[in-house]
Amino acid sequence: xxxxxxxxxxxxxxxxxxxxxxxxxxxxxxxxxxxxxxxxxxxxxxxxxxxxxxxxxxxxxxxxxxxxxxxxxxxxxxxxxxxxxxxxxxxxxxxxxxxxxxxxxxxxxxxxxxxxxxxxxxxxxxxxxxxxxxxxxxxxxxxxxxxxxxxxxxxxxxx
Length: 159
Fold this sequence. Notes:
mainly beta; Immunoglobulin-like; 9-stranded antiparallel sheet; two-stranded antiparallel ribbon; 1 helix; Late embryogenesis abundant protein LEA-2 subgroup domain-containing protein
C-alpha cells in the first residue's frame, strides 16, 4: 500500500511563482510542501489533478475553520518500488474581506514571529482531491488531514 505524507516546507514553489505576491487586496504566500511518497508496488502510480484546499483553524478556539488557500499539481508519477519526494506548490492567501477583525492576520503574525514573539509552527487542515491511476484503473479519493510546519515567513524574510 502506498503512503504519502507532508515532510516539510521549502522555499521552492515547484512552479516558479514568487514567494510573496499581492493580488488586489489579497496577500499570497507561495511556497512548496515537500511530499514524501513510498510506493512498494510492482507498478508505478500516476496521480493527476491534485487539488488541495487549506483551512486555518479559528484562533479564538471555536470549531470554525477559514479557507486560506491551497494548491494544485497537474501530474506526478510515483515510481515502482520507490521512496520518492516531490514539491507540491502551495499558497496561503490572506483576504481581509474574510477577516474583518484581523484575527487570522494577527495570529499569523504572532506565530511567524513578526510581532517579536518566538516563531511557532502553523497547523493547516486540508482537503485534497486527486485522481490516482494504476494500469487502467482510476480512483478519485478525497484526503482530509492536517499538517504542521514552520511559518514560511519569519523575521521579515521568506523561507
